[in-house]
Amino acid sequence: MAAASFARLLPPLLSLLLLAGAARGKTVKRDVKALNEIKASLGWRVVYSWVGDDPCGHGDLPPWSGVTCTQQGDYRVVTELEVYAVSIVGPFPTAVTNLLDLKKLDLHNNKLTGPIPPQIGRLRHLKILNLRWNKLQDVLPPEIGDLKKLTHL
Question: Which cell locations does it reside in (predicted)?
Answer without folding.
Answer: Cell envelope
